[in-house]
Amino acid sequence: MHREYLRKVHPARLNTLILTGELWTYLADLNEQAQERLDTIMEQIKIAEGVTEKLKCTRQMEWVRRCNNIHNRAEEIILHEIIYS
């Protein structure tokens, strides 16, 4: 996603990364940062909203619904913070 963003919005930056051979390490590092941030945000939201293992044991479908909702919101945050910046 970020590569496509660079292609459309910052083509000079993309060309520089390609020519210096840094594109794939740059994208891999960005992907790692995004995944770590996603995990952190999800855990913080789960705690704030009381999505616990107890809920998972007692009401599995509710837990799945809430976790999916949290995941989607966290992804949106990551897209705006890391991917499209």
TrEMBL record:
It comes from the Bacteria. InterPro entries: TnpV. This is Uncharacterized protein.
